[in-house]
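Following up on my earlier thread - several people asked me to post the actual chain instead of describing it. Fair enough. Here it is, all 80 residues.
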Amino acid sequence: MKYLLVLAVVMVAFYVWRHNRIADRSQSRPPPPPPASPLPVVMVACRHCGTHLPQGDTVQGALGPYCSADHRRLKEGGPA
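Reply from S.P.:
Thanks for posting it. Predicted structure:
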């Protein structure tokens, strides 16, 4: 008798598992959109040392971009 009960529980569990799998397949969900790729960043070289850095992070001088105010001062001969 207990084997019959175990068999019934296994069959019910199998039915529930299979029913959930079929329900998941029937719901057609659109695939998630691909993540947006970031825009390219313009890279420039420091006029003093040649280090490349994003244009937004530069210190602009009369002769061009620099990586720091010290390099701008050294290259352009500005105030100490």
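The chain has a mean pLDDT of 86. That should answer part of your original question.
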